[in-house]
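// run 5 | inverse folding | seed 20
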């Protein structure tokens, strides 16, 4: 009798495992189905947590036509594939044979293309903004100057401590948005190089008209900005994570829309973000996306002998944001050479920031 009970229990357990496995297999098959876009004029708002889960896992859902996640549905033909052509767009030495010679190029830490194909980037000691113009000449747009001089422990002479620029975004009128000293929002006039502080009004009504006004803000660390975008005629800002003494915890990144003479509006629904900002929340670090729906990212070599790579993430008809999305190597570079900056040109070429150089990856020529 005891043996019969054991056999019966084993049969029941086996049936339960079989049903569970079948359910998992069905879920996996559903997740790999291509997304069928569905035109919806007034989509219902999506909660932040739900949007996060659907962005990275569930690819069987039907998306509204204006949903930001549509930008990451990979098309049948990618812009770049393995075997793409790699050239040196800009460098600071002639023997590198660049298309554009830029003195004191330094570390190309941010890249952005204007509609006409002009490339803007942050270089030198991250204290200068350059332009590579259409005639392949380099031009200094703005410099941030020296904050102070310090003498390192292993040196006898003082060295400059520079004010720095971080992040670049193009405004509708062709100017640049940037962050100075990794905190303060500025607009740079690309014609004159004039830098204008972007004033804003905190949610509590406090007016910030200059960098000095931050001194009067309680806990100014919560208003240290890390990202800046020009989006739909507004300035989109993201705060840097910071440690809150009141909550004794790290507060996450928060997004705000900034309009002149109006209080900053918090972004409660991440579907309101542009695709580039959305990618920052749910995609790979050091990555960008193209009109083909694929994500292009930098993959660092694990060891000094391993190459750094520019890879393409995604598969036709599926979301490139999926954790299990396939990866294809597009180009390889020396270990530690790349800065993490990427930007697509209007022609579909990918600029890649590096130490003392900017590479350009172009689609391979058709046979």
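// decoded
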């Amino acid at each position: 009798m005891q043996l019969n009970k054991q056999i019966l229990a084993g049969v029941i357990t086996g049936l339960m495992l079989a049903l569970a496995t079948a359910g998992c297999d069905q879920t996996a098959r559903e997740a790999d189905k291509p997304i069928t876009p569905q035109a919806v004029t007034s989509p219902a708002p999506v909660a932040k947590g739900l949007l996060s889960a659907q962005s990275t896992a569930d690819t069987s859902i039907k998306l509204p036509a204006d949903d930001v996640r549509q930008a990451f549905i990979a098309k049948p033909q990618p812009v770049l594939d393995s075997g793409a052509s790699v050239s040196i767009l800009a460098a600071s030495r002639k023997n590198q044979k660049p298309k554009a010679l830029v003195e004191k190029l330094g570390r190309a830490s941010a890249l952005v293309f204007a509609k006409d194909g002009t490339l803007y980037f942050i270089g030198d000691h991250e204290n200068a903004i350059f332009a590579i113009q259409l005639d392949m000449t380099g031009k200094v747009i703005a410099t941030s100057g020296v904050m102070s001089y310090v003498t390192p422990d292993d040196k006898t002479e003082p060295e400059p401590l520079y004010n720095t620029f971080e992040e670049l975004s193009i405004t509708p009128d062709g100017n640049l948005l940037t962050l100075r000293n990794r905190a303060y929002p500025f607009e740079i006039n690309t014609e004159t190089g004039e830098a204008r502080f972007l004033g804003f009004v905190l949610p509590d009504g406090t007016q910030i008209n200059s960098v000095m006004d931050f001194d009067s803000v309680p806990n100014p660390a919560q208003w240290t900005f890390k990202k800046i975008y020009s989006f739909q005629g507004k300035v989109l800002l993201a705060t840097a994570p910071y440690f809150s003494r009141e909550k004794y915890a790290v507060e996450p990144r928060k997004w705000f829309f900034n309009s002149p003479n109006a209080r900053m509006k918090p972004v409660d629904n991440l579907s309101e973000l542009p695709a580039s900002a959305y990618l920052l929340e749910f995609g790979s670090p050091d990555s960008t996306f193209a009109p083909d729906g694929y994500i292009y990212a930098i993959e660092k070599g694990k060891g000094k002998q391993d190459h750094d790579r520019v890879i393409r993430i995604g598969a036709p008809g599926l979301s490139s944001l999926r954790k299990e999305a396939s990866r294809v190597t597009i180009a390889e570079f020396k270990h530690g050479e790349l800065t993490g900056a990427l930007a697509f040109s209007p022609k579909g070429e990918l600029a890649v920031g590096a130490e003392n150089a900017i590479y350009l990856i172009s689609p391979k020529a058709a046979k």
